[in-house]
Amino acid sequence: MTQELEWLEETPSQTAGPFVHIGCIPTFAGIAGVYPEDLGKSPINDGAAGECITITGSVFDGTGWALRDAMLESWQPDAKGYFAGQVDADPKVSGFCRFAADAGTGEYSLKTIKPGAATMRTGVHAPHISLWIVARGINIGLSTRVYFEDEYNDADPLLARIEQRHRVDTLIAKKVKTGEYRFDIHLQGDNETVFLDL
Amino acid sequence: MSSNNNTENDPLIPRNRANHPVVYDPEYKTSVTRSPKLPLLSMESTLSEETGPVFGHNLIGELDNNLISNFSQGAALAIGERIRVHGRILDERNRGVANTLVEVWQANAGGRYRHDRDKYFAPLDPNFGGCGRTMTDEHGYYEFMTIRPGAYPWPNRSNDWRPMHIHFSVFGSGFGQRLITQMYFEGDPLIKLCPITGTVKNQQQLDRLIAPLDMKGSRPMDYLAYKFDIVLRGRRQTQFENKPQGS
Lengths: 198, 247
Ligand SMILES: [Fe+3]
Known about the structure:
Mean pLDDT of chain A: 97
Number of helices of chain B: 3
Oligomer: heterodimer
Strand content of chain B: 15-25%
Mean pLDDT of chain B: 94
CATH architecture of the domain at 63-231 in chain B: Sandwich
CATH superfamily of the domain at 63-231 in chain B: Aromatic compound dioxygenase
Order of helices and strands of chain A: HEEEEEEEEEEEE
CATH class of chain A: Mainly Beta
Bound molecules: fe (iii) ion
Number of strands of chain B: 12
Number of strands of chain A: 12
Strand content of chain A: 25-35%
């Protein structure tokens, strides 16, 4: 026998289930009047510096069907690459947003400002938005990142770790027109999105 | 949302995936087409995971943590067995996670959710919405009042039932600590029959999702209590950091 370590183990995740909206975005679920508004309605306030952008996409299952019950959360720094709470961060950028796949079409949409490149221990990370995806059938929330095709991504330390270079493309939002990007997430299949364990 | 004055942006302890449910489980049919097949990309956490949204206590309304009365805003009480659920949010270093947001949602006493897509014929309770939220105190304690949710059938195998459960969503101080889980009730015979609870293959870990009846935390002639602690990922702290590039 040895001495015992004193760490606790993380509580196991469980699926968010099909009714996650009730707890996280009740107004979206038709439950009005309990909270004044849903948490994380927007990651920015009026006057946030930077380019306003909209990212639209769907979360596809292994059969190519867009999930109608997915809920997503995003987290990002401001246009200069500072996260809320860091010195010099833009006070108009909370950086956090919650949004859901449309119950009819399965499409989600995120309106925000384009984040700046951020300096971290591992180097300068290209502009990106972190996404966290939960839904029925997803037993532990899935993490990924949205990068942008019109930014310089070649030196990004995370993208650099992807061995199969063609898979890098699964993390790059495609520019549809000025200020509009498309980012589809594939849970399985030929285009399976790179999911992260950080 | 208040500003984040958390200066503790230390690296997160890598997640031990063996503590979590398997992602692919044919007994839980929806997971078959929704589970990634390829390995996750692992590396040390970055600021994107070490920072996260911070919410202030001013977010929380007076009735937010009382599911018995928050849907009617105090006008009437929900039907069901009154319970108090309380516990601590901790990190892997056994420290309370202070001032963090805890959100819950659940079915009513008959096992029915207030949601368009819930077609179960148990009736809605006109005085029950099913959502609640609270913030932990400076030691990581939280509590809320609710009614015991009913078990409910769900389309999976031909006769699957969810044990009584409350869904929990917890933040922590970094986006990489984000966790959604479910609390079960001590003694519920449906726990061991449910394919969703069954996705947690480590029995010790599954047991940690089962809240014990807490008679000392109850109130005579009013409510029973259940205790439910949640452990989030912790942060690594060491003076012996290698700083290879430019820092
Ligand atoms: Fe449920």
